Amino acid sequence: MTTRIELTVNGRGRSVDVEPHHTLLEMLRDDLALTGTKECCLVGECGACTVIVDGESVDSCLMLGVEADGAAITTVEGLASGDRLDPLQEAFLETGAAQCGFCIPGQLVSARALLDDVPHPTRTQIEEGLAGNLCRCAGYEQIMEAVELAAARHGAADPAPHPRAVTTDVASTPDAKVAPQ
Amino acid sequence: MRTFDYERPDMLADALALMADADGAARPLAGGTDLIIRIRDGSIRPRTVVDVKGIAEFSRDIRIEDGWLRIGARTTMTDLLRDERIRRDYAALAEAAAYVGSVQIRNRATLAGNICNASPAADTAPALLALEARVVAVGQRGRRVIPLDDFFVRSGVTTLAPGELVEAIEMPVRSGRRGSVHARRTRRRGHDLASVTLAVTIDEDGVTRVSYGSVGPRPVLAIDDTGLLADPAAADDAVRGRLDELFAAAAPSPTSMRASPEYRLAMLRVMGLRAVQDARKRIAS
């Protein structure tokens, strides 16, 4: 039996019929077609599925979709504004932080949550802030450099760039659909 | 993941009724960082998942009430780290909470969930034991208070009655000075389960509480009221000897893949001495 929930994803109001046992990760990928968020370890160890829920980064594989009722969520797709990349995305490109790229959406989202909380983190704070995001290519050095670069240039992103406080019309949700069994 | 009924009651009475009606097949959901993993791997198969996050009594706050610092059931590890009183007066708990998982885990994982899960390696358990924590449990028969040392039984098992839920965890607000320290040994820095966890509190009246986990089926609390451990002038050898007596209940599993029993016991002694020394410094500063 599905439950109808309403939430804000990347600034846009969405309404989704979700199965109780489907995770937020499944809901984002399968119901909302936001496949930037990656499925990997499914036990909260790798961080590939990291998204921001009401201002806090979480592993979306460990949260039920129904628990997101009323929440404001930012996925990697919500970092850029139109054609303008998030400063972190620019910095990741410049330092060559993405190798195979699979972990990068999670790394970016965790880094965004970190910089929103601590605009100019120390190296130790960056290491701790990204400790929940594994990179099998071991491109950690470039990832750390990218976060330092973005922080040095911008620190916190522009005022209110994220849709956490944005309220939108939840009626305009044509592509939400019933989740498959 | 197997399906289940999801309920998110607003009223405590409704939550307790759901827990009772399911006859053992209901599981409470707070942060979900242990529960979702166990449902997915099939090790538990709840018929009903009762999300407690809508219940007013299960607050997400930390407040002082009748001489106790009360931590509501929905309070996360991140919430603990942000609380000035916890960082100042319950430093061992703040240090333990900072070690739990990663940022993403700490943003969801609750203190109540950490103790209800009753892992022998639970990061917060030794700190809470050394800080004299107690559990406020609520069931259809009413509320009761359980000293934390009477709460843990063995891995995954507590003295909560069927259908009972943890509403809050409380620690005494003390007038006297106390130094508290948490220490942890893992295979690698960062996101890993503990091979040894340990917490020490030293009070100005000379009582020292030593609590240790991950070296047996449940975390252990041992108390030194001889004043020896609290004495800055005590010889290290005498402190080691006294600690060895307090560590008598340590019985690490020989089958654990994280560390051998010999390693854990050796590290327990080293960490114990250092933590006692650090706690003395804290009470003096």
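The radius of gyration of chain B is 19 Å.
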